[in-house]
Amino acid sequence: QLQLVESGGGLVQPGGSLRLSCAASGFTLDYYALGWFRQAPGKEREGVSCISSSGGSTNYADSVKGRFTISRDNAKNTVYLQMNSLKPEDTAVYYCAALYYCSGPIGYWGQGTQVTVSS
C-alpha cells in the first residue's frame, strides 16, 4: 500500500517547538519533491514549505520563514519539518505531500497531523 504517514503533532505553548515527520511506505521518495501544507479551521489549505528531490532547493511561505526548516532523509524515506517559535496562528492540520516538483502536481498526500499552539 502506497502511503505517507505524518507524526509529531501535538499541543505546544507559544514560543515552543515541534518536529513533524512524514514517512513513506510502498514507494521511494527519492524522485519526488516533498512539501508540507496546512489547513486551519475555516481556511483553505496553504503551502508551508517544499524541498526539491535533490534537497538542494527549499522554499517557505512568508509566514514561516526563519522559524520553520524542511529537510529530508532519503535513506529513511522521510521528510521533516522543524517548527520553532510557534505562534497560535500556526495552529492547523499539517499535511505532507509528494510532488512531481515544488509547485507542481501532487502525487500523494498524507493523512494529516494536528498542531495546536496554545497557552
Question: What do you see in this structure?
Answer:
The protein is an all-beta fold and 119 residues long. It is 0% helix and 51% strand. A hairpin with a 4-residue loop joins strand 7 (68-73) and strand 8 (78-83). The radius of gyration is 13 Å and the shape is globular. 32% of the residues are buried.
Mean pLDDT, to the nearest integer, reads: 96
Distance between the termini: 39 Å
* Quantity of strands, as a count: 11
Largest sheet: 7 strands, mixed
Helix content: under 10%
Note the overall shape. globular
* Tally of alpha and pi helices: 0
Characteristic key phrases:
mainly beta, 4-stranded antiparallel beta sheet, 119 residues, 7-stranded mixed beta sheet
Structure described in brief:
This protein has 119 residues and is mostly beta strands. It has strands at 3-7, 10-12, 18-25, 33-39, 46-51, 58-60, 68-73, 78-83, 92-99, 106-109, 113-117.
